[in-house]
Design brief:
With 140 residues, this protein is an alpha+beta fold. The chain contains three helices and six strands; from the N terminus they run αβββαβαββ. It has one domain: Aminopeptidase (3-Layer(aba) Sandwich).
């Protein structure tokens, strides 16, 4: 039998779920972990248009906020903070013990620090002298 490695841009969510399911089954087998639980929060206008949002997952006690975005006209008006606080509340309800986020030095480092996140690690070497920060906020 012949196998091949195939690159797929924008793969179908069902195909991506096969990988997630395999990882979760292995975590359950090895450590007894519950499945990774994904989330999304959105800011929508009266026409249901998305003006911002955040997403991520809770996994093994960590509430990971993967992405946060607010459209330019609505930045600086508290929507990002409301999204993060709503996400953190969900993380606490799910029994997570800490939240984690990543950001570049030119994105939202000050924003996350203002919300109580602390730099846990920084990675240098990105293009144009950019720095990638890993931040954490303990719930307990």
């Amino acid at each position: 039998m012949t196998y091949k490695i195939v690159y797929e841009a924008n793969p179908h969510p069902k195909d991506m779920q096969v990988i997630n399911d395999g990882i979760m089954a292995y975590a359950k087998q090895k450590k007894g972990h519950e499945p990774i639980d994904f989330f999304d929060f959105f800011i929508r206008d009266e026409n249901n248009k998305i003006l911002g949002g955040c997403n991520g997952e809770s996994l093994y006690g960590c509430f990971f906020i993967d992405q946060l975005w607010v459209a330019e006209p609505w930045r600086g008006k508290g929507y990002g903070t409301k999204l993060i606080l709503a996400a953190e509340q969900l993380g606490k309800e799910r029994g997570c013990i800490f939240a984690a986020v990543n950001t570049m030095d030119w994105e939202a480092l000050g924003f996350y620090k203002k919300l109580g996140y602390q730099v846990e690690f920084e990675r240098h070497g990105f293009l144009k002298d950019s720095v990638f920060y890993f931040l954490r906020k303990d719930f307990i």
